[in-house]
Amino acid sequence: MADPVIRASSPNLDLLDPRQIKTLQRDAANGDPKALRSVAQQFEAVLLTQMLKQMRKPIMPGGMFDTPEAQHWNEMVDQRLGLHLAKSGGIGLADALLKQIEYGRGGLAAAGAQADVVAGR
Description:
The chain has four helices and no strands. By secondary structure, it is mainly α. The protein has one domain. The N and C termini lie far apart (about 55 Å).
């Protein structure tokens, strides 16, 4: 049975699923506000995941938690926690990115309209 296509506007969007990323890319390219928010959250999730990974480094090596399996598990936990934090408001980076994206889109549209007026179109 094929997986249903999940739209970027779906609240259950898994930003770690490559199949859903394609749909998200298409929707974001078309300017869908919910898709743009998801992209900004995804970026924030990547940053938070890297921060969590770096925070875990100072833990003393050795012991029962210093195995390849435990390291793999910790990576998965960091990834999911970073995603959850980003979706829950994060550190505000997604909101700042959205403002910048909206400004860029509005700024480009305004610049194009102004160039049309100056050119007499």
